[in-house]
Design goal:
Oligomer: single chain
Shape: elongated
Structural class: mainly beta
CATH superfamily of the largest domain: TolB, C-terminal domain
Low-confidence stretches: 1-37, 490-498
Mean pLDDT: 91
CATH architecture of the largest domain: 6 Propeller
Distance between the termini: 11 Å
Largest sheet: 6 strands, antiparallel
């Protein structure tokens, strides 16, 4: 009789779930971003830490490039951040992957490298951590004989690495400018290239090429961040490009000799700006495009009026002209005093990470229409924002939690980082080692899904969740949970026992 009861309950429960949830085929056909909600509060999830920031989608996804959003969250440069995160989000603003970092140790520059690994700057070790599709650490990358700076890390197709290094020296600035401090701590910039065998093959130092007075900083203070390099890129001819916030310029460096080839922007600008009388200031993120153009994220500090924008230029390096051929300026204006980036996507859209401003990111089409916009919670910022295709297959299992809610008992479950889950099969049993009763199949409609098992507690005391992919193949099972104490042995379906 007990097995008959279990079968009847399991069948009825499965039918209810199946009628309420879309099929795997239906889920596959749902357009990305079709969820009706605009605010995701991961802190309301049972399987996510309470301090995870709220995420607000202000422009629902439409005609976005493929892939997920890669960002980090923290309270701001120099500000205490009890709970910094790196994260991957979908087009609903819902979680795909989260990783909480130690207080005040926010990871930056979280992105996918050309070899398929994910990398981010790990402040606990002062180097870049590389993760594979299982989110396991496969390598630690760092500059040789220097402290690795967090602003940028380029892993080249041949295995070479490009690093930015902030190089502090004590300088008698009274010999440089009137009123200069005689023992100033001055930060120069080193650009270092390391080969696949961790041998330094190139090193460039700003001290040898950039005058102190080229900086836009106050040179009379006791501490001076002279250059503030924030991005390094390999130009089409193989030489290096550096964008520097405190020079207001892109500097091109000969990769063999270290000589400065040209300087674009700032006090030593050698280019004529065409279609762009404003120019740029405190820039970030010089990048190359497949069409031969260049993008820059212009923070716009100290320009009138102050606003930030994404820019695309055509450079004539022989005749020294920079022609602005595309820009995006938000409506209303967004001004980010620091950080930020512009990523050109394969479908022609541009993803703009606004840095210190709100919104956190905007994806725009080539004609300037917003395809997606998202913001982290109040007081939260992100260093850069990216979109990449990604398949995550976590090394850890799904997390299942049983929770009493008044007279009800619910199961909550998620699989942090997994991108191939279509649904979850819920199994139950009287013993933890005998979970052979399939009590339902729940479609994965969000990062975390739940199942009410109150009606099953007379016969089933332990549960687990088994994710399945679009083809119905079982994946790594979750942990096993027992229902809360005192909830398992009540009288169950008395009418069937008569």
């Amino acid at each position: 009789m007990r097995s008959l009861i279990a079968f009847a309950v399991a069948l009825g429960f499965w039918l209810v779930l199946a009628s309420a949830a879309p099929s795997m085929a239906q889920m596959a056909s749902l357009p990305e971003g079709s969820a009706p909600h605009t605010v995701v509060n991961p802190a309301a999830y049972v399987t996510v830490p309470d301090d995870f920031p709220t995420i607000t989608v202000t422009v629902p996804a439409s005609n976005t490039a493929p892939g997920y959003i890669f960002i980090n969250s923290f309270a701001g440069p120099g500000l205490p951040t009890p709970a910094p995160y790196i994260m991957i989000l979908d087009n609903r603003g819902d979680l795909v992957f989260w990783h909480k970092q130690p207080p005040n140790r926010a990871g930056t520059d979280f992105k996918k490298q050309p070899n398929g690994w994910l990398t981010y700057y790990d402040r606990t070790i002062g180097k870049f951590r590389a993760l594979d599709e299982t989110y396991s650490t496969v390598r630690i990358y760092g500059a040789i004989n220097h402290w690795t700076n967090h602003h940028d890390f380029q892993l080249l197709p041949n295995g070479h690495q490009l690093y930015l290094i902030y190089d502090p020296r004590i300088v008698d600035m009274s010999q440089v400018v009137p009123g200069g401090h005689p023992n100033a701590l001055v930060y120069g910039l080193i650009v270092q290239e390391v080969d696949a065998n961790n041998q330094v093959v190139f090193e460039w130092r700003s001290w040898d090429h950039i005058a102190f007075t080229d900086s836009n900083q106050d040179l009379t203070t006791q501490e001076i961040d002279l250059i503030h390099g924030n991005a390094v890129e390999v130009d089409f001819d193989g030489n290096l490009l550096i964008s520097s916030r405190h020079l207001d310029e892109v500097t091109k460096i000969d990769r063999r000799t270290g000589a400065v080839i040209w300087r674009w922007g700032g006090k030593r600008n050698q280019f004529t700006f065409i279609n762009d009388p404003r120019g740029f200031s405190h820039i970030h993120d010089i990048r190359l495009l497949p069409n031969g153009h260049y993008t820059i994220y212009d923070n716009g500090n100290n320009l009138t009026p102050e606003y930030s924008r994404a820019l695309e230029y055509v450079l004539d390096q022989e005749n020294k002209t920079a022609t602005l051929v595309w820009e995006y300026r938000n409506k209303p204006d967004t001004f980010a005093w620091g950080m930020g980036n512009a990523q050109r996507l394969p479908n022609g859209n541009t993803l703009i990470g606004w840095g210190t401003a709100t919104p956190t990111l905007t994806e725009v089409t080539p004609d300037g229409r917003k395809a997606f916009e998202l913001s982290l919670g109040q007081g939260q910022q992100s260093y850069r924002a990216f979109r990449f295709p990604w398949v995550g297959r976590p090394a850890w299992p799904p997390l299942l939690v049983a929770q009493a809610e008044g007279s009800r008992v619910k199961l909550y479950y998620s699989w942090n980082g997994a991108t191939e889950v279509a649904a979850y099969r819920i199994y139950g049993g009287r013993r933890a080692g005998a979970l052979d009763t399939l009590v339902g199949t729940q479609a994965k409609t969000a990062f975390e899904v739940s199942t009410d098992v109150t009606s099953l507690l007379g016969d089933l005391c332990f549960f687990r969740a088994v994710p399945v992919d679009q083809a119905g193949r079982a994946m790594t099972p979750s942990n096993v949970v027992a229902v809360p104490a005192g909830r398992c042995h009540r009288v169950f379906l008395p009418m069937l026992l008569r």
